[in-house]
Amino acid sequence: MAHRTILHVDLDAFFASVEQRDRPELRGRPVIVGGEPGSRGVVSAASYEARVFGVHSAMSLTEAARRCPDGVFLPVDGRRYQQASRDVMAILRRFTPQMEPISIDEAFLDVTGSQALFGDGPTIAARIKAAVREDVGLTASVGVASNKLVAKVASDLRKPDGLVVVPPGEEAAFLAPLPIGRLWGVGAKTAAVLADYRVRTIGDLAALPANVLESRFGKHGASLAERARGIDADPVHEGDPAKSVGHEHTFDVDTTDREVIERTLLAMADGVGGRLRSAGVRAGTIAIRLRDNSFETISRQKTLPEPTDMTERIYEVALALARPEVAAIRARGGKVRLLGVTGSNLGEREQLALFDTDDPRRRKAIEAADSVRRRYGDEAMTRARLLDAKLPAPFERDPRNPLDRRARGVPIEAEKSDAGQAGRDRQGDTDLDDIPPDDA
Question: Tell me, which fold does domain 148-233 have in CATH?
Fold first, then answer.
C-alpha cells in the first residue's frame, strides 16, 4: 500500500510577522499584538524577539508589559492578517487541491498525487517555503510525514522557518522521545492524569497497555494509544462545514451588573441568530462561556428539543444558563470579565421545517428586519433594549466561516478557490478575545 504524503504548513508568529513585514523598523524588535501595554485583553501574537522575555499568546497585556516593558505593542489588524492568509493559501493551492485550512495561519496538504508534477514531499515543502517568503514576505515552518498528526508535530519542532521530514515507518520512533504535551490533542488536564501513570513522553504513553488507557479515558483512550504510536488515518478534508457560530465580548470593566450582562447576552444572541438565518441553518445546542476576573472560564450548554435560529429562543436559553453562573461568581466576590454565546449542532432549516413550532408572525417580522439590514446595513435596525447599550454591535461576520460565505451566496466551487478559508468558525472581530491567538 502506497504511503500518503502530508504536509502541515504553519506560518511563524503570524500576526507579529505581518507587522514586521509591513514596518521594517520593527524587524528585530519585540512586537506584541493585542493592544496597548497594560490595557485589558490578551496577547494575540508575540514575535520571537518578545518570546525571549516570556511573552506568549493568551497572556494578559498587563503581564506582557511587565515582562517586556520595551516591547512594541500594536492593536490587532484583522483585515491585513486575513489578506496575508489569503495570499499564502493561494500559494498552497498551486501544489494541490487537497488542502485543509485549520486556522488563519496553518493548513494541511495532501500532496500524494502532486509528486509527479512538483517532486517529493520535502521538495514540495521547500518550494512552498520559498514561495511564501518571496511572494508574501513571511516565513513558514513545514512538517512532512505520512499522516496529519505526525506532520503537525514535526512542523512545530524547528520554528521559525523550519522543515522537518519524518520518513514513512519512523513515526513512532520520531514521537517517542518528545514530551507528552507535544502530542496533538493532549492538553494540560489529560497530561496531568497521564502523569499519574508516570507518562512523561509520548513513548511512555505508547508503552502503556491499550486496555489501561481505555479503562481510564473510554473511547478517547483507544485514540490516545494509536496517536502515541504515530497512527492517524484522518484524511485531509477540503472545506469542512462550520461546526458552530458564536460571539464573545470582553467587558471594558469587570461587571456583575444584571442589565449590562443581559443586554450583552441579547446582543450576542441577536448576532448568532442573524448569522444562522442568513445561512439557512438552525442550532440544536446553545452554549455560553463566562470568564471571571480571576481568569477562571466556565462553559455551559443545553441541547434543545427543537433546533432554532430565532433570537428570542437563543437568548432565553443563554440567559437561563448564565444566570446561576453569574450568581455564583457574585457570591464569591468575583466579577464577569468575558461573556460568549454559541450555537452548534447545526442542521438545514428546510430539513427541519416539518417540525417547525415558531410563531409564523414573529418569524415574518424577524425576516423582514433581516431584509432591511441586508439592504441598508446591520445598523439600520436595532432592538430598543440595545439602544445606548455601548455594546460592540452589530457583530461582524467571519469571511472564513463557511456559513457566512454561504450567506453571501458564495458557491461551493468558489469556496474551494478562495484562498483564506478555514473550515471552522471564528467569532466576529468585535474584541481582542475574538481573534484566535497566534500560537506558533
Answer: DNA polymerase; domain 1 (1.10.150)
